[in-house]
Amino acid sequence: MASIEDLLRRIGPALTTDLIAEMAKDGVSPDAARQRIARADDFTIKRLAGLRFPHNARFLYLDDQFGDKTYWQAMERVFREHGKSYWGAIAGLKARGGICPRHLFDGVCGGPAARSRQLSPQRIFDRLSAIHLLEEFHDDATNETYVKFRPHEYRTDPIAQIRARMVAENVVLHGMKEWFRRTGFGSFDKVRVRGDGEAPVVSSVTWDLSAPSYARPLVAPSGKGLKPGFIVCDVNLRDVLSEDSVATFVRKHDLASAPANVAPIMPFLVADGFSSKAWGLARSRGILATTTSHLFGEDVAKALRDLISLLTDTGATASVNPDHVERVLNSLTRIEGAANNLRGALFEIIVGSLVKDVEGGYLRAGEKWKDYETGRSAETDVLLDKPDNKGVLVIECKAKIPGARVTLEEATKWRDDRVPLLHKILRRESRIAGKPFTFELWTNGPIDPEALKYLKAYPPSPDYAVAWSYG
What we know:
It is a single chain. The protein is 43% helix and 23% strand. The protein is α+β, with helices and mostly antiparallel strands. The protein has four domains: 78 residues; 63 residues, Arc Repressor Mutant, subunit A; 138 residues, 3-Layer(aba) Sandwich (Trna Endonuclease, Chain: A, domain 1), CATH 3.40.1350; 170 residues, Trna Endonuclease, Chain: A, domain 1 (3-Layer(aba) Sandwich).
């Protein structure tokens, strides 16, 4: 008869209920199997602490199995069958590239924030962190906190790619927002989008977009008139979504719709593409799954992919074709509200490419910096470390719509606040410390005469140079 150690060698890490089932094949009764497990040598047989499963089952493994690929695969299999809250968080994070900003984890996880007998996103994160599956870390370059998989067996996308994809997704979300508002499908002034003020939460579950809806199939009569239903939407532009990715969204919608007093919720899921099984699952479960090409046309869908590539590769290649940028912008501005969301990002791309081509050196774009003495932070739109110790160029980019200009308030904030704060922070960075600094303000529009007068009259600093460019 095989020992517990032999069983774990053969089938891999497993729940005690699975081990009991394996021993039953050899004629061992459930009670006898449980006793054998209870008497197992704790030095050889390890029990996962902090997590329990149905029927008081425990996750068992051998000491030399901990943390390898088989261990995490077994863990995922157990979560999928017996710990859906944990599996939803794992599958959701995988669908986002294995990493996401901490403030978006609630939506990625998909759990309700406050509901009895359900694990909250915070509790899920705490428990998965305790078993060394997830971790939280602060990225100094972006001054942002992220959640990612801890084991090396899990792939995680580069942060630059995550940030670029979020910009493109934000374009889609604002396009969806305008469509919901214009059609009256969502209440005009109550459409919430992630990152824009109050979080889009419906039934204590966080989404990328939400809005009350008075569309007839969603409303119900109440003592105070009509009670609205809700529309919710998630957008994920990372590759083709898998069946597991859609399954997490289905589960998320099921959790939101579960309470008896919750009004109907109509779910939208937008992606660059879906696998055939993912598409079939969405249709069978009533999810309104669609692609960017179906929503906006293939030209716009391609432009969104190009935008992600542009924003991801700017720092690495710093070689941008302005005509290509113009084509991307022209395509994306077909989406209502896209121009305002894109103008700044694409202007920074062009400025960064231009100064890199002219000056050479190492380009860094869109980074956040923190002054640990005061706790204040500031962002550099474009930072160029010039070659041959020629100095550091820091550019503040102000992209303006036609007819708009840099105001006195903007110029004052930049010159009187941002420049000295950034100089204080950057002069202590080991890679650029001791080099001469130049701070410049670049805008594609004019500078207000009062602002220009203010900048020219500002006393020069002995520690750094200041300049501006406009028009």
